[in-house]
Amino acid sequence: MKLYDGGRAPNPRRVRIFLAEKGIKIPTEQIDLGRLQQRSDAYTAINPMQRVPALAVDDGTVIAESIAICRYFETLQPDPPLFGRGALDSALIEMWNRRAELHLLFPVASVFQHLHPAMKEMVNPQVPAWAEANKPRVFEFLNFLDGELRSRPYVAGGEYTVADITALVAVDFMRVSKMAVPESLSHVRRWHEAVSARPSAAA
Amino acid sequence: MKLYDGGRAPNPRRVRIFLAEKGIKIPTEQIDLGRLQQRSDAYTAINPMQRVPALAVDDGTVIAESIAICRYFETLQPDPPLFGRGALDSALIEMWNRRAELHLLFPVASVFQHLHPAMKEMVNPQVPAWAEANKPRVFEFLNFLDGELRSRPYVAGGEYTVADITALVAVDFMRVSKMAVPESLSHVRRWHEAVSARPSAAA
Question: Closest Cα of chain A to B128: distance in Å?
Fold first, then answer.
Protein backbone atom coordinates (compact mmCIF):
# COMPACT_ATOMS: atom_id res chain seq x y z
CA MET A 1 0.00 0.00 0.00
CA LYS A 2 1.27 3.51 -0.81
CA LEU A 3 -0.14 6.99 -0.27
CA TYR A 4 0.68 9.67 -2.83
CA ASP A 5 0.92 12.74 -0.65
CA GLY A 6 1.18 16.44 -1.46
CA GLY A 7 2.83 18.55 1.22
CA ARG A 8 0.89 21.51 2.54
CA ALA A 9 -2.17 21.26 0.26
CA PRO A 10 -5.40 20.85 2.24
CA ASN A 11 -6.66 17.53 0.86
CA PRO A 12 -3.51 15.49 1.50
CA ARG A 13 -3.50 16.90 5.03
CA ARG A 14 -7.05 15.68 5.59
CA VAL A 15 -5.91 12.13 4.94
CA ARG A 16 -2.75 12.48 7.04
CA ILE A 17 -4.73 13.74 10.04
CA PHE A 18 -7.27 10.94 9.57
CA LEU A 19 -4.51 8.32 9.55
CA ALA A 20 -2.86 9.89 12.61
CA GLU A 21 -6.17 9.72 14.51
CA LYS A 22 -6.43 6.03 13.58
CA GLY A 23 -2.80 5.40 14.44
CA ILE A 24 -2.20 3.98 10.97
CA LYS A 25 1.22 4.34 9.33
CA ILE A 26 1.76 3.60 5.64
CA PRO A 27 4.52 4.33 3.14
CA THR A 28 4.11 7.63 1.31
CA GLU A 29 5.50 9.27 -1.78
CA GLN A 30 5.58 13.05 -2.07
CA ILE A 31 4.20 14.55 -5.27
CA ASP A 32 5.74 18.00 -5.76
CA LEU A 33 2.76 20.25 -6.53
CA GLY A 34 4.98 23.33 -6.79
CA ARG A 35 6.67 21.69 -9.76
CA LEU A 36 3.33 20.42 -11.16
CA GLN A 37 4.48 16.82 -10.71
CA GLN A 38 0.80 15.82 -10.43
CA ARG A 39 0.54 16.50 -14.16
CA SER A 40 3.43 14.25 -15.12
CA ASP A 41 2.69 11.22 -17.28
CA ALA A 42 3.75 8.93 -14.44
CA TYR A 43 1.30 10.45 -11.95
CA THR A 44 -1.50 10.86 -14.51
CA ALA A 45 -1.31 7.11 -14.99
CA ILE A 46 -1.96 6.76 -11.24
CA ASN A 47 -4.71 9.38 -10.97
CA PRO A 48 -6.02 10.71 -14.30
CA MET A 49 -7.64 13.61 -12.39
CA GLN A 50 -4.05 14.78 -11.64
CA ARG A 51 -4.78 15.41 -7.97
CA VAL A 52 -3.42 14.32 -4.66
CA PRO A 53 -3.89 12.39 -2.48
CA ALA A 54 -4.26 8.96 -4.04
CA LEU A 55 -3.85 5.57 -2.43
CA ALA A 56 -2.49 2.56 -4.29
CA VAL A 57 -3.60 -0.61 -2.54
CA ASP A 58 -1.72 -3.89 -2.67
CA ASP A 59 -3.40 -5.26 -5.82
CA GLY A 60 -2.48 -2.01 -7.63
CA THR A 61 -5.98 -0.50 -7.56
CA VAL A 62 -5.87 3.25 -6.96
CA ILE A 63 -8.34 5.04 -4.70
CA ALA A 64 -8.44 8.79 -5.29
CA GLU A 65 -10.47 11.46 -3.46
CA SER A 66 -9.58 12.18 0.18
CA ILE A 67 -12.87 11.09 1.67
CA ALA A 68 -12.91 7.85 -0.34
CA ILE A 69 -9.45 7.07 1.05
CA CYS A 70 -10.54 7.91 4.60
CA ARG A 71 -13.63 5.76 4.28
CA TYR A 72 -11.48 2.87 3.05
CA PHE A 73 -9.40 3.01 6.23
CA GLU A 74 -12.53 3.45 8.36
CA THR A 75 -13.81 0.12 7.03
CA LEU A 76 -10.46 -1.61 7.48
CA GLN A 77 -10.05 -0.26 11.00
CA PRO A 78 -13.32 0.98 12.51
CA ASP A 79 -11.73 2.23 15.77
CA PRO A 80 -11.86 5.03 16.70
CA PRO A 81 -14.95 5.70 14.56
CA LEU A 82 -14.53 8.94 12.60
CA PHE A 83 -17.55 8.52 10.32
CA GLY A 84 -19.95 7.62 13.14
CA ARG A 85 -21.88 4.50 14.02
CA GLY A 86 -25.48 3.68 13.19
CA ALA A 87 -27.69 5.17 10.48
CA LEU A 88 -28.58 8.53 12.03
CA ASP A 89 -25.21 9.29 13.62
CA SER A 90 -23.36 8.46 10.39
CA ALA A 91 -25.76 10.53 8.30
CA LEU A 92 -25.31 13.58 10.53
CA ILE A 93 -21.53 13.26 10.37
CA GLU A 94 -21.72 12.98 6.58
CA MET A 95 -23.95 16.08 6.57
CA TRP A 96 -21.50 18.10 8.68
CA ASN A 97 -18.49 16.91 6.73
CA ARG A 98 -20.18 18.00 3.52
CA ARG A 99 -21.23 21.34 5.00
CA ALA A 100 -17.63 21.88 6.09
CA GLU A 101 -16.49 21.04 2.57
CA LEU A 102 -19.07 22.91 0.51
CA HIS A 103 -19.39 26.01 2.66
CA LEU A 104 -15.91 26.30 4.15
CA LEU A 105 -13.11 24.26 2.58
CA PHE A 106 -14.15 24.78 -1.05
CA PRO A 107 -14.76 28.54 -0.63
CA VAL A 108 -11.43 28.93 1.22
CA ALA A 109 -9.65 26.98 -1.52
CA SER A 110 -11.39 29.02 -4.23
CA VAL A 111 -10.12 32.26 -2.72
CA PHE A 112 -6.57 30.87 -2.80
CA GLN A 113 -6.80 29.30 -6.25
CA HIS A 114 -8.35 32.28 -7.99
CA LEU A 115 -6.41 35.11 -6.35
CA HIS A 116 -2.97 33.86 -5.35
CA PRO A 117 -0.16 34.61 -7.83
CA ALA A 118 1.42 31.21 -7.06
CA MET A 119 -1.65 29.49 -8.55
CA LYS A 120 -1.51 31.28 -11.90
CA GLU A 121 -0.02 28.34 -13.73
CA MET A 122 -2.12 25.66 -12.01
CA VAL A 123 -5.52 27.36 -12.27
CA ASN A 124 -6.31 28.45 -15.77
CA PRO A 125 -8.13 30.76 -16.01
CA GLN A 126 -8.01 32.37 -12.59
CA VAL A 127 -11.30 34.21 -11.99
CA PRO A 128 -10.59 36.85 -9.31
CA ALA A 129 -14.28 37.82 -9.13
CA TRP A 130 -15.06 34.23 -8.13
CA ALA A 131 -12.47 34.42 -5.34
CA GLU A 132 -14.02 37.65 -4.08
CA ALA A 133 -17.53 36.12 -4.19
CA ASN A 134 -16.29 33.32 -1.93
CA LYS A 135 -14.80 35.48 0.83
CA PRO A 136 -18.12 36.45 2.44
CA ARG A 137 -19.30 32.81 2.21
CA VAL A 138 -16.36 31.75 4.40
CA PHE A 139 -17.32 34.20 7.14
CA GLU A 140 -21.04 33.44 6.88
CA PHE A 141 -20.37 29.77 7.48
CA LEU A 142 -17.95 30.43 10.36
CA ASN A 143 -20.62 32.61 11.93
CA PHE A 144 -23.20 29.84 11.58
CA LEU A 145 -20.74 27.28 12.94
CA ASP A 146 -20.03 29.48 15.95
CA GLY A 147 -23.71 29.30 16.90
CA GLU A 148 -23.66 25.50 16.53
CA LEU A 149 -20.50 25.12 18.62
CA ARG A 150 -22.09 27.05 21.46
CA SER A 151 -23.87 23.86 22.53
CA ARG A 152 -21.44 21.09 21.57
CA PRO A 153 -17.68 20.47 21.55
CA TYR A 154 -17.20 19.23 17.97
CA VAL A 155 -18.52 20.08 14.51
CA ALA A 156 -20.87 17.10 14.25
CA GLY A 157 -21.68 16.55 17.95
CA GLY A 158 -20.08 15.22 21.11
CA GLU A 159 -17.23 13.34 19.41
CA TYR A 160 -14.30 14.26 17.18
CA THR A 161 -15.04 13.12 13.60
CA VAL A 162 -13.97 13.52 10.00
CA ALA A 163 -16.06 16.74 9.93
CA ASP A 164 -13.61 18.27 12.43
CA ILE A 165 -10.72 17.28 10.20
CA THR A 166 -12.27 18.98 7.17
CA ALA A 167 -13.10 22.13 9.15
CA LEU A 168 -9.66 22.29 10.80
CA VAL A 169 -7.84 21.97 7.49
CA ALA A 170 -10.10 24.65 5.99
CA VAL A 171 -9.56 27.10 8.85
CA ASP A 172 -5.79 26.59 8.79
CA PHE A 173 -5.77 27.11 5.02
CA MET A 174 -7.42 30.53 5.43
CA ARG A 175 -4.01 31.89 6.42
CA VAL A 176 -2.50 31.61 2.92
CA SER A 177 -5.37 33.73 1.63
CA LYS A 178 -4.90 36.27 4.43
CA MET A 179 -8.21 35.49 6.10
CA ALA A 180 -8.59 34.86 9.85
CA VAL A 181 -11.32 33.67 12.21
CA PRO A 182 -12.79 36.85 13.72
CA GLU A 183 -12.04 37.37 17.44
CA SER A 184 -15.77 37.57 18.14
CA LEU A 185 -16.35 33.93 17.15
CA SER A 186 -15.32 32.56 20.53
CA HIS A 187 -16.84 29.10 20.07
CA VAL A 188 -15.06 28.51 16.77
CA ARG A 189 -11.83 29.71 18.38
CA ARG A 190 -12.25 27.40 21.39
CA TRP A 191 -13.00 24.47 19.04
CA HIS A 192 -10.00 25.35 16.83
CA GLU A 193 -7.71 25.45 19.83
CA ALA A 194 -8.96 22.06 21.01
CA VAL A 195 -8.61 20.26 17.66
CA SER A 196 -5.23 21.92 17.00
CA ALA A 197 -3.93 20.59 20.33
CA ARG A 198 -4.45 16.97 19.26
CA PRO A 199 -1.23 15.30 18.12
CA SER A 200 -2.89 14.50 14.77
CA ALA A 201 -3.01 18.21 13.86
CA ALA A 202 0.75 18.14 13.30
CA ALA A 203 0.25 15.70 10.42
CA MET B 1 -40.44 10.84 8.36
CA LYS B 2 -40.74 13.61 5.75
CA LEU B 3 -38.63 14.62 2.76
CA TYR B 4 -38.45 18.28 1.83
CA ASP B 5 -38.23 18.11 -1.94
CA GLY B 6 -37.54 20.74 -4.58
CA GLY B 7 -38.97 19.99 -8.01
CA ARG B 8 -36.56 19.98 -10.91
CA ALA B 9 -33.38 21.00 -9.09
CA PRO B 10 -30.59 18.39 -9.40
CA ASN B 11 -30.00 17.54 -5.74
CA PRO B 12 -33.59 16.70 -4.81
CA ARG B 13 -33.73 14.52 -7.92
CA ARG B 14 -30.66 12.59 -6.77
CA VAL B 15 -32.51 11.58 -3.62
CA ARG B 16 -35.75 10.77 -5.47
CA ILE B 17 -33.92 8.47 -7.90
CA PHE B 18 -32.07 6.83 -5.01
CA LEU B 19 -35.35 6.14 -3.18
CA ALA B 20 -36.96 4.81 -6.37
CA GLU B 21 -34.05 2.38 -6.85
CA LYS B 22 -34.53 1.20 -3.26
CA GLY B 23 -38.31 1.00 -3.67
CA ILE B 24 -38.78 3.31 -0.67
CA LYS B 25 -41.78 5.63 -0.51
CA ILE B 26 -41.99 8.42 2.06
CA PRO B 27 -44.16 11.53 2.49
CA THR B 28 -42.74 14.63 0.80
CA GLU B 29 -43.33 18.34 0.98
CA GLN B 30 -42.48 20.54 -2.00
CA ILE B 31 -40.38 23.63 -1.31
CA ASP B 32 -41.01 26.16 -4.09
CA LEU B 33 -37.51 27.25 -5.15
CA GLY B 34 -38.89 29.57 -7.83
CA ARG B 35 -40.52 31.59 -5.07
CA LEU B 36 -37.43 31.29 -2.82
CA GLN B 37 -39.43 29.35 -0.23
CA GLN B 38 -36.16 27.74 0.91
CA ARG B 39 -35.26 31.12 2.42
CA SER B 40 -38.46 31.43 4.44
CA ASP B 41 -38.17 31.49 8.24
CA ALA B 42 -40.10 28.22 8.44
CA TYR B 43 -37.70 26.38 6.13
CA THR B 44 -34.58 28.03 7.54
CA ALA B 45 -35.57 26.53 10.90
CA ILE B 46 -35.52 23.10 9.20
CA ASN B 47 -32.28 23.59 7.25
CA PRO B 48 -30.28 26.71 8.13
CA MET B 49 -28.29 26.23 4.90
CA GLN B 50 -31.56 27.05 3.05
CA ARG B 51 -31.17 24.19 0.63
CA VAL B 52 -33.17 21.20 -0.48
CA PRO B 53 -33.45 18.32 -0.03
CA ALA B 54 -33.69 17.76 3.73
CA LEU B 55 -35.08 14.79 5.59
CA ALA B 56 -36.86 15.11 8.93
CA VAL B 57 -36.76 11.76 10.72
CA ASP B 58 -39.33 10.64 13.25
CA ASP B 59 -37.65 12.13 16.32
CA GLY B 60 -37.53 15.50 14.54
CA THR B 61 -33.81 15.41 13.69
CA VAL B 62 -33.11 16.87 10.25
CA ILE B 63 -30.59 15.34 7.85
CA ALA B 64 -29.54 17.73 5.08
CA GLU B 65 -27.18 17.09 2.12
CA SER B 66 -28.34 14.68 -0.58
CA ILE B 67 -25.63 12.11 -0.07
CA ALA B 68 -26.09 12.11 3.72
CA ILE B 69 -29.79 11.38 3.15
CA CYS B 70 -29.00 8.63 0.64
CA ARG B 71 -26.49 7.06 3.00
CA TYR B 72 -29.07 7.08 5.80
CA PHE B 73 -31.45 5.03 3.67
CA GLU B 74 -28.61 2.75 2.53
CA THR B 75 -27.98 1.83 6.17
CA LEU B 76 -31.69 1.36 6.94
CA GLN B 77 -32.21 -0.76 3.83
CA PRO B 78 -28.97 -2.14 2.38
CA ASP B 79 -30.61 -3.80 -0.66
CA PRO B 80 -29.94 -3.17 -3.45
CA PRO B 81 -26.52 -1.79 -2.43
CA LEU B 82 -25.93 1.59 -4.10
CA PHE B 83 -22.81 2.56 -2.10
CA GLY B 84 -21.08 -0.78 -2.60
CA ARG B 85 -20.07 -3.56 -0.25
CA GLY B 86 -16.69 -4.16 1.35
CA ALA B 87 -13.87 -1.66 1.88
CA LEU B 88 -12.42 -1.44 -1.64
CA ASP B 89 -15.69 -1.57 -3.58
CA SER B 90 -17.25 1.11 -1.35
CA ALA B 91 -14.19 3.33 -1.60
CA LEU B 92 -14.18 3.16 -5.40
CA ILE B 93 -17.88 4.02 -5.54
CA GLU B 94 -17.27 6.95 -3.20
CA MET B 95 -14.41 8.02 -5.46
CA TRP B 96 -16.55 7.91 -8.60
CA ASN B 97 -19.49 9.60 -6.94
CA ARG B 98 -17.18 12.42 -5.88
CA ARG B 99 -15.59 12.66 -9.30
CA ALA B 100 -19.08 12.87 -10.81
CA GLU B 101 -19.93 15.63 -8.33
CA LEU B 102 -16.74 17.68 -8.41
CA HIS B 103 -15.96 17.42 -12.10
CA LEU B 104 -19.45 17.14 -13.62
CA LEU B 105 -22.43 18.05 -11.43
CA PHE B 106 -20.84 21.07 -9.74
CA PRO B 107 -19.43 22.52 -12.99
CA VAL B 108 -22.78 21.97 -14.76
CA ALA B 109 -24.61 23.64 -11.87
CA SER B 110 -22.08 26.52 -11.84
CA VAL B 111 -22.75 27.23 -15.51
CA PHE B 112 -26.49 27.42 -14.78
CA GLN B 113 -26.19 29.41 -11.55
CA HIS B 114 -23.78 32.00 -12.84
CA LEU B 115 -25.20 32.56 -16.34
CA HIS B 116 -28.94 31.89 -16.31
CA PRO B 117 -31.14 35.00 -15.92
CA ALA B 118 -33.57 32.99 -13.74
CA MET B 119 -30.82 32.62 -11.11
CA LYS B 120 -30.10 36.34 -10.77
CA GLU B 121 -32.00 36.69 -7.50
CA MET B 122 -30.82 33.41 -5.98
CA VAL B 123 -27.11 33.68 -6.81
CA ASN B 124 -25.64 36.94 -5.69
CA PRO B 125 -23.32 37.91 -7.23
CA GLN B 126 -23.49 35.93 -10.45
CA VAL B 127 -19.97 35.60 -11.88
CA PRO B 128 -20.38 34.92 -15.62
CA ALA B 129 -16.62 34.40 -16.06
CA TRP B 130 -16.83 31.55 -13.53
CA ALA B 131 -19.64 29.96 -15.56
CA GLU B 132 -17.55 30.20 -18.72
CA ALA B 133 -14.53 28.70 -16.95
CA ASN B 134 -16.65 25.68 -16.02
CA LYS B 135 -17.94 24.86 -19.50
CA PRO B 136 -14.72 23.24 -20.77
CA ARG B 137 -14.41 21.30 -17.48
CA VAL B 138 -17.77 19.64 -18.20
CA PHE B 139 -16.63 18.41 -21.60
CA GLU B 140 -13.18 17.37 -20.36
CA PHE B 141 -14.77 15.14 -17.74
CA LEU B 142 -17.30 13.66 -20.16
CA ASN B 143 -14.44 12.87 -22.50
CA PHE B 144 -12.54 11.12 -19.69
CA LEU B 145 -15.70 9.26 -18.63
CA ASP B 146 -16.23 8.08 -22.19
CA GLY B 147 -12.86 6.35 -22.09
CA GLU B 148 -13.75 4.71 -18.77
CA LEU B 149 -17.16 3.53 -19.99
CA ARG B 150 -15.53 1.80 -22.94
CA SER B 151 -14.72 -1.12 -20.67
CA ARG B 152 -17.59 -1.19 -18.17
CA PRO B 153 -21.34 -0.61 -18.13
CA TYR B 154 -21.63 1.81 -15.21
CA VAL B 155 -19.71 4.79 -13.84
CA ALA B 156 -18.12 2.92 -10.94
CA GLY B 157 -17.94 -0.60 -12.39
CA GLY B 158 -20.20 -3.49 -13.24
CA GLU B 159 -23.17 -2.41 -11.13
CA TYR B 160 -25.49 0.59 -11.04
CA THR B 161 -24.59 2.79 -8.03
CA VAL B 162 -25.05 6.23 -6.51
CA ALA B 163 -22.29 7.45 -8.87
CA ASP B 164 -24.60 6.73 -11.83
CA ILE B 165 -27.35 8.74 -10.15
CA THR B 166 -25.05 11.75 -9.70
CA ALA B 167 -23.77 11.54 -13.28
CA LEU B 168 -27.26 11.06 -14.76
CA VAL B 169 -28.67 14.05 -12.90
CA ALA B 170 -25.67 16.15 -14.00
CA VAL B 171 -25.97 15.18 -17.67
CA ASP B 172 -29.73 15.85 -17.69
CA PHE B 173 -29.14 19.21 -16.05
CA MET B 174 -26.80 20.24 -18.90
CA ARG B 175 -29.91 20.93 -20.99
CA VAL B 176 -30.97 24.02 -19.03
CA SER B 177 -27.55 25.51 -19.72
CA LYS B 178 -27.77 24.61 -23.42
CA MET B 179 -24.97 22.06 -23.25
CA ALA B 180 -25.22 18.55 -24.74
CA VAL B 181 -23.17 15.36 -24.71
CA PRO B 182 -21.19 15.39 -27.97
CA GLU B 183 -22.30 12.77 -30.54
CA SER B 184 -18.75 11.43 -30.61
CA LEU B 185 -18.90 10.22 -26.98
CA SER B 186 -20.65 6.98 -27.86
CA HIS B 187 -19.94 5.23 -24.56
CA VAL B 188 -21.37 8.06 -22.47
CA ARG B 189 -24.41 8.12 -24.76
CA ARG B 190 -24.92 4.36 -24.45
CA TRP B 191 -24.61 4.61 -20.66
CA HIS B 192 -26.98 7.58 -20.53
CA GLU B 193 -29.57 5.69 -22.56
CA ALA B 194 -29.31 2.69 -20.24
CA VAL B 195 -29.64 4.61 -16.97
CA SER B 196 -32.41 6.81 -18.41
CA ALA B 197 -34.40 3.69 -19.32
CA ARG B 198 -34.61 2.59 -15.69
CA PRO B 199 -37.97 3.42 -14.07
CA SER B 200 -36.12 5.39 -11.36
CA ALA B 201 -35.02 8.01 -13.92
CA ALA B 202 -38.60 9.32 -14.03
CA ALA B 203 -38.33 10.32 -10.37
Answer: 9
